[in-house]
Design goal:
five-stranded mixed β-sheet, two-stranded antiparallel sheet, Archaeosine Trna-guanine Transglycosylase, Chain: A, domain 4, single chain, alpha+beta, 4 helices, 2 domains
Length: 168
């Protein structure tokens, strides 16, 4: 049993929190080591208080700074004006700040990207194929041009259960 980080952004994050999303798709090579019974800790976008925004995330965590999670801010519950630093990318989140925990139930490394169904896209929070394609190409750009939608790369489908307890 191993533990890995998994970066999640909207619209998937709110779907996981609501319990509506149990499968995510990722570039295949990044997930080769994953297997059932492994754990994932979720990295999500966040803000630092403006007074601490100059700190690297790991330094801020070591100093006891508490992040403000982007998913918690809504028009009904915004942060006070001028209080937040810039939005921080999920991939920069230190493990100490994570709050979502997942247990891998299944890993499928044999899928081609174009095999994703409309229902699977909707479960991830995408209403239209074009929205999913745009999100995929943006997310996959970090892995390189070989993973663009139009090239129909091999992907990994990770089925998981959200768990409430902190990870071991």
């Amino acid at each position: 049993m191993s533990t890995y980080a998994l970066t999640i952004i909207e619209p998937q994050l709110s779907r996981i929190i609501a319990g509506d999303l149990t499968v995510v798709w990722r570039v295949g090579i990044q997930m080769q080591a994953y297997s059932p019974s492994d754990f994932l800790w979720v990295r999500e976008p966040y803000y630092l208080p403006k007074s601490k925004a100059h700190l690297a995330p790991s330094s801020a965590a070591a100093r006891g700074v508490t992040p403000i999670y982007a998913a918690d801010l809504t028009p009904q519950s915004p942060a006070p004006e001028g209080w937040l630093g810039p939005l921080m990318k999920a991939r920069t989140m230190p493990r100490a700040w994570h709050r979502q925990h997942l247990l891998i139930e299944a890993v499928d490394h044999t899928r081609r990207l174009h095999s994703i169904t409309a229902d699977e896209m909707a479960a991830q929070g995408f209403a239209h194929l074009n929205h999913f394609i745009g999100w995929w190409n943006k997310a996959a750009s970090l892995a390189g041009p070989a993973f663009r939608w139009d090239l129909n790369p091999l992907v990994t489908a990770i089925t998981f259960a959200r768990i409430g307890a902190p990870l071991p």
